[in-house]
Recover the amino acids of this structure.
């Protein structure tokens, strides 16, 4: 009888652990699909600027991937938090829609993006999703109507109030476009130079070209980052292609050159995030 009672206690403990594990897994899945994708953090970064006399603030947004379960109304929080930063410049590093052929709402998106305010300007580049599903026929107009200057292998030299100038170079998408650096002659006029490229691994081709800051996206940080198992994030990020070497965050490439890989706001392939909260990146220098 004593042995039977002991066995029953063990069975109850094992059963309780199984139930707890199941509830934990279900809770994790609910969080990954229903909570984290709709959170939003603002990550502040202080960069050294030995050139400009004027303090500069750049807000970077990336990979909105607007779709049915993340439609235009979800941009309200993004707009609010962006405008709260009082940015000098807003940069969007590509991938507006997730799949334009499956879901698009241009008028609503334009109306939302128009509400983003920057002191000196709003700049955008092409991502791979801005080409597919018919998006390539609409993307340029959407960004223009939204008040963004869309760069494709182009320079944009913007004067500031103190007479200094900041240079933005925007590259075409590496997967579906044809990226190439434009002429560097305008660097002679600028006090700070920023390079925009959607896919982060492309940075290897553009290092040591004189850019103090390189801004990228595309990786989504893998969308999944399980503590103590970094292989999961690395494998997930590799699905995006051209983001194997730089998964997310700040990378000091050399003394004068910094790369930032924005882990994005939306989701793709799977409408879930775990341990990679949607972000707005802010650079102060």
């Amino acid at each position: 009888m004593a042995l039977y009672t002991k066995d029953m206690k063990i069975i109850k403990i094992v059963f309780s652990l199984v139930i707890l594990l199941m509830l934990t897994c279900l809770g994790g899945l609910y969080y990954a699909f229903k909570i984290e994708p709709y959170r939003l953090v603002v990550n502040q970064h202080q960069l050294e600027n030995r050139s400009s006399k004027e303090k500069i603030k750049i807000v970077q947004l990336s990979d909105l991937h607007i779709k049915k379960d993340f439609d235009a109304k979800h941009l309200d929080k993004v707009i609010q938090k962006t405008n709260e930063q009082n940015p000098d410049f807003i940069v969007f590093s590509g991938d507006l829609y997730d799949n334009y052929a499956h879901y698009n709402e241009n008028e609503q998106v334009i109306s939302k993006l128009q509400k983003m305010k920057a002191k000196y300007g709003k700049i955008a580049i092409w991502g791979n999703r801005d080409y597919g599903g018919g998006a390539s026929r609409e993307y340029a107009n959407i960004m223009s109507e939204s008040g963004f200057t869309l760069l494709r292998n182009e320079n944009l030299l913007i004067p500031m109030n103190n007479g200094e100038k900041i240079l933005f170079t925007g590259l075409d998408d590496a997967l579906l476009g044809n990226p190439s650096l434009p002429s560097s002659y305008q660097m002679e006029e600028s006090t700070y130079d920023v390079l925009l490229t959607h896919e982060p691994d492309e940075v290897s081709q553009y290092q040591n070209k004189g850019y103090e800051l390189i801004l990228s996206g595309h990786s989504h940080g893998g969308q999944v980052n399980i503590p103590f198992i970094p292989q999961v994030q690395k494998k997930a990020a590799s699905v995006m292609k051209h983001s194997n070497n730089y998964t997310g965050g700040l990378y000091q490439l050399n003394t004068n050159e910094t790369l930032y890989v924005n882990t994005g706001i939306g989701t793709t392939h799977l409408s879930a995030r775990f341990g990679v909260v949607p972000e707005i990146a802010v650079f102060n220098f």
